[in-house]
Amino acid sequence: MDASESAVRAYSFGLDESYRPLPSLYLAFLLIWFVSTCCWTFNTYRNRHFQTNNLQWTLASVPLIKALQLSLSFLFWYSCFYLQRCSLWMSFGVYVTGVLFQTASFISFLLISHGYCITCERLSVNERRTTAALGCIFYLTLVGYRASVPYFAVLLLLNYFFSFYTIFYHISQNLSALREQLTFIEDEDVHAMHDAVYMKYLMFKKFQGAMHIVAMAEIVIYINMDNSSENYWLRLLVREWAIFCIFLYIGWTFRSQDLAPRFSVMPALKSKREIIIPPIYSIVSLICA
């Protein structure tokens, strides 16, 4: 049972004293996510000259939505316990922002797995359409599941399976392409690009490990569906810390920074026929010019 569902339940059937720690808990995490959002935005703006940071600006929406969800959760529970007013609309806002947060997270993972602003400057039309379609399907399936619509639990499970398969497939493709580029660099003795390509390879390896943790965490969450109110605050604490730590690791990996020289040398679009040549050719052209 997530925050929005517990909110609706509390509103409908009366407050349970086991939920009393929730206002303080939500306020603490709100401050953590708010500070993280400010730090991420400031760092992205400060390092905007070092790399193409369209990905970083896109990722900024994730902690922003999370902070909004936590603020609504705090206001709802605070008003319930201390003002004796439980707003159904505010609980609905918690529900909507929770779904938006998960959808935005999923789309961000898809963008990273495609190599957006890492191995290519922008996605192709088909990649953008596929990402948008998967995001919409994920959103609608999650809404149906949260609303307890019959059979949507199965649909959500299938959606998760296909989504993670897609993410891991694209990560493997990028890792394979980067390994080929590293081999090409060593064989052709074009060492000017080695550090940049190797850094991209390490970033994808770290992201691959993080996505394995995310997949396992989702499995644990949906297997252990304990709807009891006892120790709900403790389960919430563990879940929120896990979410924050995962996003902190991914955010730190893909933050705006002064990266290796020529990190931003990349093809405009990924080419299935010429995976190796574009970035290498680009830097050789710059050197020879």
Automatic annotation (TrEMBL):
Protein name as catalogued: THH1/TOM1/TOM3 domain-containing protein
Domain of life: Eukaryota
TM regions (residue ranges): 25-45, 57-79, 99-118, 209-225, 237-254
Keywords from the named record: Membrane, Transmembrane, Transmembrane helix
Keyword presence, Transmembrane helix: yes
Keyword Transmembrane helix annotated: yes
Signal peptide: none
